[in-house]
Amino acid sequence: MSDLLRFATAGSVDDGKSTLIGRLLYDTKTVFQDQLEQVERTSADRGDDYTNLALLTDGLRAEREQGITIDVAYRYFSTPVRSFIVADTPGHVQYTRNMVTGASTADLALVLVDARKGVVEQTRRHAALSALLRVPHLVLAVNKMDLVAHERGVYTDIVRDFTSLTDDLRDRFGALPDVTAIPMAALQGDNVVHRSSAMGWYDGPSLLEHLEGVHVERDHGETRPSRFPVQYVIRPMSAERPDYRGYAGTVASGTLRVGDDVVVLPSGRSSTVAGIDTYDGPLDAAVARQAVTVRLSDELDVSRGDMLVAAAAPPRTVSALDATVCWMADAPLRPGARVLVKHTTRTVKALVSAVTDRVDVASLTSEPVSELGLNDIGRVALRVASPLAVDPYAVDRTTGAFLVVDDATGTTLGAGMVG
């Protein structure tokens, strides 16, 4: 839906990610008075001669003591134009899995660069992960411009270097998000919510203006073939509607309309959408990210984990997956491992048949390996016990993604992208 924007922040250590998010929260008046008073007291206790807005997001005690971000912190704020969910992700290389977690559902990635340091290895890593995860929009935030006297030449050089990087990413991944560069000084609030008079040479939007105006409706997949994973079967068995049978879930992509011809996968049975129900009443159509209950014109055996798809453009139904996997567990992933694969609402047993290579997202090169370690990203082949209806991740970020789960503990071990 176009009134909500999810975005993730990324950057090297001490680039100012948490300060930037704190500034957004503060300047949009999302911070409660007692929160601000606590941050002011903590800032004074630390010896800071200013209100350290980073403390609004570095919520864990270890984060505050070390002055770094460790875990993904989700924050929420809104303006009269749009609501926002922001994932403040760690900058350390050992927390790559956390950045993948935060960016996997993001509409936009905000990559920070310290104006004094320019494009560094972590910049390359985070930009590459954004491209790999197919995040639709990318903002290069050149932060701490106050520490380089707001020099236009410094900003121009960094944008040039980043453009060279994005050209490399386009060659490697075949696609690239929409990229916007903004100079800013988050500590003072320059070009964060309000445009800065200190950088009169910059005539673009502030960060918040860009976030409010960036177009995301197309990226949610309303124009793609419809995909509707069934989460729950509703049989109220009431006297008023004894024959009611609906399939509840969230539209993954496309637009589902009453009268559409659909196929139920993996069974392959066909039917027509007879109705689309919500708590507020029936709809003629439902779009991506909308939670609804769908009724079919035929009595079919449909259950949780099945998927209703456009009859004219169905996904592939496969029993083997070739995918890129980000490994998130301490124990390495090796061929022969027996795991669970959770794809949309369907969970099946799987066998890891091969681990072929590992991607260095900083250098954009691959090397042959026989296992993946913690935070590694590489190519993996899996055989699944029951068929899955999948699209390439490059086409659909929902039906092209899956989780690798420990079949004994239910712990998430990795995240995969089909294709």
What does this protein look like?
- By secondary structure, the chain is an alpha+beta fold.
- The chain has 3 domains: 4-219, Rossmann fold (3-Layer(aba) Sandwich), CATH 3.40.50.300; 227-310, Elongation Factor Tu (Ef-tu), domain 3 (Beta Barrel); 316-418, Translation factors (Elongation Factor Tu (Ef-tu), domain 3), CATH 2.40.30.10.
- Helix content is 19%, strand content 35%.
- The protein has 7 helices and 23 strands.
- The strands form 4 sheets. Strands 7, 8, 9, 11, 12, 13, 15 and 16 form an 8-stranded antiparallel β-sheet that branches. Strands 2-3-1-4-5-6 form a 6-stranded mixed β-sheet, sandwiched between helices.
- The model is unreliable at 60-70 (pLDDT under 50).
Topology:
Blueprint: E1 4-11, H1 17-27, H2 33-46, H3 61-66, E2 73-78, E3 83-88, H4 96-103, E4 108-114, H5 121-132, E5 137-143, H6 152-173, E6 178-183, H7 207-213, E7 227-229, E8 232-234, E9 246-250, E10 255-257, E11 261-265, E12 269-278, E13 281-283, E14 285-287, E15 291-296, E16 307-310, E17 316-327, E18 338-343, E19 346-360, E20 365-368, E21 377-390, E22 401-405, E23 412-418
Helix pairs in contact: 5-6
Label this structure with key terms.
alpha+beta; Rossmann fold; eight-stranded antiparallel sheet; six-stranded mixed sheet; 23 strands; 19% helix; globular
Short description:
By secondary structure, the protein is of the alpha+beta class. Helix content is 19%, strand content 35%.
